[in-house]
Amino acid sequence: MNQKGKQSLLKLYQTQGLYDTCRITGLKTYDIINILNQPLDTQLSNDLLFDMLKSGVLPKKYNDIEFFIGNDGVWYLDKKFDMGGDTYMKVYSMATPFWDGTDGLPFDTTNYTIFDKSNDKKISEGDIELYDFAEASGNFENITELIKWYKNFYLPQVQKFFDKHYNRILKYESEG
How many CA atoms lie within 13 A of 149 on its CB side? Predict the structure, then answer.
């Protein structure tokens, strides 16, 4: 986009806000912020990550972790763990970056299910409350920095929390 187009887009963004600018121009939120090279606060970072994940710009799978976004804006995740032998476990968690304007990553595991590998039939399931939090600023200079944060911090941190919670569930299961 040329400089005049950027100036027009910026004026529209400043007077109408991001979502009306999207509606008027047909551009995606993340495209507008990228074109304008705008700084991001935690709420905007949350909104942009949500939009990019939902539209497929960001991957919906990472190291056996699957991401789903609910209509409530919550990021639901599940991860499959091989338990050895004839079983595997799926752990179900929530990990919405910058939830409600918070600087950081809350990670909440709510339940798990153990399956038979041969037929994917449910063997058992359990409810559990496991919580972790990783501090992280939601303020970024631009969308490129946000995407780097997502790839270099969010995804590895979610992996680490899943592994930690899986081990705690195994301990809980063995104590019966």
Answer: 24
CA 21 to chain centre: 25
Kindly tell me if the per-residue pLDDT of 74 is higher than 80.
Answer: yes
Segment (H or E) for 145: helix 143-149
Task: Give backbone dihedrals phi and psi of 153, rounded to 5 degrees, phi first.
Answer: -120, -60
Nearest to 54 by CA among 63, 44, 46, 64: 46
Domain positions in the chain are 1-38, 41-175
Which residues are within 8 A (CB) of 31 and not within 5 positions of it... i.e. 6 or more apart? none
pTM of the model: 0.89
For 73, the token pair is 């804006």
Q: Is 75's pLDDT higher than 90?
A: yes
For residue 123, give both structure tokens: 């063997």
Residue type, 121: K
Tokens read off for 33: 């912020």
